[in-house]
Amino acid sequence: MKALDKTMKDVQFFSKGTKILVVLLGLAAIAVIYRYVFGLGGATNLSDDVPWGLWVAFDVFAGVALAAGGFAVTAAVYIFNMKKYKPIARPAILTAFIGYSVVMLGLLIDIGQSQRFWHPLLMWQHRSVMFEVVICITLYSNVLALEFAPAVLEKLKLTGLLKILKFFTFPLVIAGIVLSFLHQSSLGAFFLIMPARLSQLWYSPIMPQMFYISAIAVGLAMVSFESIVSAKAFKKEYEMDILKGLGKGTRITLGIYLLVKIIDMIVRGTFPMLLDGSLASKFYIAEILIGAIIPIILYSIKSTQESVGGILTSSSFVIFGVLFNRFNINFFAQLRPGISYFPSVAEIAITVGLVALGIFAYRIAAVYFPVMHDSQEQH
Amino acid sequence: MVSNTMPVDTKAVKKGVLIDLTKCIGCRGCQVICKNWNNRAVKKTVLTGNFTNPLEMNSETYTTVKFFEEEKENKMSWNFVKTQCMHCKDPACASACPVGAFTKDPRGPVTYNAEKCIGCRYCMMACPFGVPKYEWEKLFPVIQKCTFCVDRLDAGLIPSCAKTCTSKAIFFGDYDAIVAEAEKRIKDNPEKYVNHIYGKEEAGGTSWMYLSSVPFEQLGFKTNIPKRALPDLTWASLSKVPAAVGTLITVLSLVAYFRNRGDKDKGE
């Protein structure tokens, strides 16, 4: 195939995994049709008691957090001039761009009036966190598209345009970091207005800060995870030096996160709630263990941090832990007697399909554009 | 004494409604007239062994009367609670809505413009009273909730439920007069009423308020709602955005400048 990148010649596009992705995409497409024929009530298990379900918790809240690697890595490479991480800048930007595109697609499917998706862009309501987040993720997706554009332009050999874009590298990186700070923390601010709805274990005036810190941790963990998986998929060498550095960054961020959580619990006096035996308290303890304490310990063991398997395990804990946190805040922190919710088949199929779409898009981009190669080698 | 038949200028500012639960006889006339005036359809309901029907408000039911049974001295005792939108002074739904579909009318009603709504349901999450309901069964659903009969106010009429209430449990009037009346009733009959006007301070104050002879938490009222306006909680974070943007841009530019000083060939 002529279109293939030099370094990707030996990779066959339709691997066994890719075929599974196509099947999942097909099922999701059927679910999307079902959703638009039978409406939200017919296709989902949402109700007046549980207005936000799997799509909001996973496709939006978890998706945005997982895509935080984009701004964390560009900040390290361009702002702090940590050259070591340059090779992973492009994969991280690509992941973020795909992540945000998928988030917006998920949001589009979730809102009842999909055809009015543009309303927030025109009907400004500056007191709304939702408005701020929609504006931020819309702008940030554009920033990410421009940050990834050099890969496309290199491929098409449009050196003139490439030079113009290069000139805007720093403003774009800074815009990306600022926009990320705003919406990552605002996702925590979403819940500030629900003091009576959320369990006091989670409800805190510093939820925005907690969301931001945990997003950086999970963003870095996700970049490590994905570097390992894609190195395996594309049969490339593991870059241990980078992986170790990412692990250190994740550990420090998680340490800060855990410290903030503990101080918050002391200040608000919620420690006794941990032992009240409620489901919420068990989930809270599990979340802190899985998402913070266990990975901090794993990241502190030298042998773990020097093996690919160890890094993969530690970062999986962080990813799962932060997902768990977003799910907890979206559901389990809001448990009330008599209220139950489990996502419908269509909800699950669409969520799985969106993940599959992300992986599929990443594979296309990584195979056809210079994403994985070390940019220094080419110059 | 304020009465629900007293002529009030419905177009003048700041109205309120007082629901005196001790006077409610559970006739559900308000529920019926509300459907009637607002052209609400019926939804299929189920028997639950309780007279409350439907059990909660829904997109076709702006108000529902809840029946609470208790045993008092071996005799059955009823308490009836009319539920509807509380029409907060500073509504959480309005501040949550990304497109400004909700508006606080200076007279009291929290109104909703379905034309703007994108159907994100953040208002449902934000409302401390669980009021906004969704048209789950429709392909292009919007939110539905009590309108305070704002169309009737415009026409010089009082809300249909207040108009129809046979036992004078629903009082409509000037907000200040309503509060004064509620305070007077508690003061004159301290043994009859719980010493609390539900809605006077909840969520920063609501245009609709309740009096009761039974503790509110026993009647399904949420009693953990802060006394401050809920949008302030979000604003504490959102108001810092401009300063955060300015600071971040400055700090990032400075760090980038000093960390990259002397380096050639930046970017890609």
Feature tags:
A: mainly alpha; 0% strand; disordered N terminus; B: 268 residues; alpha+beta; two-stranded antiparallel sheet
Blueprint of the fold:
The complex is a heterodimer of chains A (379) and B (268).
Chain A: H1 16-43, H2 54-66, H3 69-79, H4 86-110, H5 119-122, H6 129-156, H7 159-167, H8 169-189, H9 207-233, H10 240-268, H11 279-300, H12 302-305, H13 308-330, H14 345-368, H15 375-378
Helix pairs in contact in A: 1-14, 2-4, 2-13, 2-14, 3-4, 3-8, 3-9, 4-6, 4-14, 6-7, 6-8, 8-9, 9-10, 9-13, 10-11, 10-13, 11-13
Chain B: E1 15-20, H1 29-37, E2 64-72, E3 75-83, H2 92-96, E4 102-104, E5 110-112, H3 122-126, E6 133-134, E7 143-144, H4 150-154, H5 160-164, E8 170-174, H6 175-188, E9 208-211, H7 231-238, H8 241-259
Parallel strand pairs in B: 1-9
Antiparallel strand pairs in B: 1-8, 2-3, 4-5, 6-7
Description of the structure:
The complex is a heterodimer of chains A (379) and B (268). Chain A is mainly α. Chain A is built from 15 helices and no strands. Residues 1-6 and 374-379 of chain A have low confidence and may be disordered. Helix content of chain B is 26%, strand content 16%. Chain B has 268 residues and is α+β, with helices and mostly antiparallel strands. Chain B has a three-stranded mixed β-sheet with strand order 8-1-9. In chain B, strands 2-3 form a two-stranded antiparallel sheet. The chains are: A mainly alpha (379), B alpha+beta (268). Chains A and B meet through helix 1, helix 3, helix 4, helix 6 and helix 8 of A and helix 2, helix 3, strand 6, helix 7 and helix 8 of B.
